[in-house]
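Data availability (excerpt). The following record was deposited with the supplementary files.
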Amino acid sequence: MHAAKPLFDYPKYWAECFGPAPFLPMSREEMDLLGWDSCDVIIVTGDAYVDHPSFGMAIIGRLLEAQGFRVGIISQPDWQSKDDFMKLGEPNLFFGVAAGNMDSMINRYTADRKARSDDAYTAGGMAGKRPDRASMVYSQRCREAYKGVPIVLGGIEASLRRIAHYDYWQDKVRHSILMDAKADILLYGNAERAIVEVAQRLSAGEPIQAITDVRGTAFVRRDTPEGWFEIDSTRIDRPGRIDKIINPYVNTQDLDACAIEQAKGAPDDPNEARPVELLPHPRLTRERTVIRLPSFEKVKSDAVLYAHANRVLHLETNPGNARALVQRHGEQDVWLNAPPIPLTTEEMDYVFGLPYARVPHPAYNGEKIPAYEMIRFSVNIMRGCFGGCTFCSITEHEGRIIQNRSEESILREIEEIRDKVPGFTGVISDLGGPTANMYRIACKSPEIEAACRKPSCVYPGICDNLNTDHSALIQLYRDARALPGVKKILIASGLRYDLAVESPEYVRELVTHHVGGYLKIAPEHTERGPLDKMMKPGIGTYDRFKKMFEKFSKEAGKEQYLIPYFIAAHPGTRDEDMMNLALWLKRNGFRADQVQAFYPSPMATATAMYHSGRNPLRKVTYKSESVTIVKGERQRRLHKAFLRYHDPKNWPLLREALKAMGRSDLIGPGKHQLIPATQPAGDGTYQSARRKNSTPAGSKKLGKPLLTQHNGLPPRASDGAKPWSKGEEGKAQAFAKGRKKPAGKRPGAR
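Predicted structure:
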């Protein structure tokens, strides 16, 4: 893998003389106190500003500050006008725009497309502080506020929508968000390398349009530039016209070489033996190769081509061998450079060692921010995940190569929490990351790692080249809990139990010292069909881990329990699979309180299955394997009902389904039967287990719609257009709720 310039090797910008701010300023008054006349960079985010390394805007802001730039924060602005976007003045270099730590649509809507009543990333948990498709709306307002200022788009919402993607909420394929937001450049992944390089080059006077060679970025261009070799992957392979076999070493874009090859053996004696002539190919390298995906127009109208494009994208995610991708959108190309080089341990320590205040900005006056309350005593020890679960977006965003912090850096952060964070009682709530036990686990060979194109290191089994040694993590646990003032270290991150069983000593250490009575793990299902589509291990591995867990809990003299998580309605899941899972739950005495239905997040492999009915884990053709898809509301309700087989409200639906499946034998009072034949007193209607956080079942009311210029906001006075009347505004609101389309478009509306 190519070496990258270290984050700390750049020359500092002149504004370094101001030093670090206690908090990145959110107002002109704070800027005045810091002695700033302007900001070099302004970050616009859909989250409340918490100066903590678990929040993306804090990491990017502090990193740019360490480069010498003056960074301001506009948090959860009023998007209905440009005024809030002007409150810090015009940035000297660029606006950095992000929807927040979550995709704004996932943040606001449940898997049943019902509006949530809260927002964990907002002070007081209040919903409605950010618009739908926040990256697009914020970018538009930034452009209105200061037309000539570059807009750099980032965060997970932009990262997962960087190409044409299926949008679950509109049930259609949308453009790359770069096109819809009309930003100048998009940074995908964690983006520390890219943001530093972009900022440094802009500060040196380079125009944003010229920055086209930074890894981990996407931008718009007209055509493939000279010097690039383009691979056409716009169609699915199928039999067609058979061309004459030519010398495979010839670059077919090199017309002179092609002419030489075509001339061979033609005149005189066609049977004359000729030596193979190796021609130089200066352009035929992975670094100068781009793969052309099917265009937006094609993947929008052809779901199988969409699955094919998704497969190609996921094959090009290893930074050691990935090639650039390009996708046509109308008359323009969206160009995606290869993924960024992962951060080294030294760079991870640098990023997490920046001077974070570790608390929310004082502007919130102590009002609780639920997401912060959950993580304020936790420590992130690594990034990335090589599990490759198809329903998860971690790999698409953070990559599958694990980026580790040093033990010294982690212990230093624990001491900071102990000494600086208000309310610390001696308990670290989590020592983990995307996966709790992938710390310092990697391929045995850097050469193999750089060449590998497998989507997972642990499916269908653990790769022989994967080092599963947990000793570094065990030592970290021991040293962390030995720190003065630390009473308990809990592990709350998801545990990859198929890795854990390879290290019984790790399981012993975990169970003996780091479980607070319950440990959550995620087998996700019991049946092979859906598990294969998830790329998850079989339930037998869970049973092995369960035996270890119970054995070591008993040895430690502790009564502890496993809490397994399961997914309903995942692609590849039949009604019979959910029935078998429900029977397994009953046999093992599990009663799920909250259940998780499959949520098709943008760009995930399982989302491509959901949309196309094909399996992108294998070669995609029009005749390739079809995948069972659960789309209808009733069937999704049924699959969730099987997970909550013990809830009387679900029994009428389950009885009806079991009879239709020919399994009436499972209805009755016996231990081997799933549900009783009689209904207790009550109406027996279905209601979501998450009543507090979702719209009541059967209700169409989503509360006050978050109107934007993209879904029906009346034109602003600044547009020079006449405001809408109440009747017209009502039509717009109806349109925003999806009930009725306005008859005409108002002047100034977009």
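Summary of structural features: Residues 516-524+535-679 form one domain.
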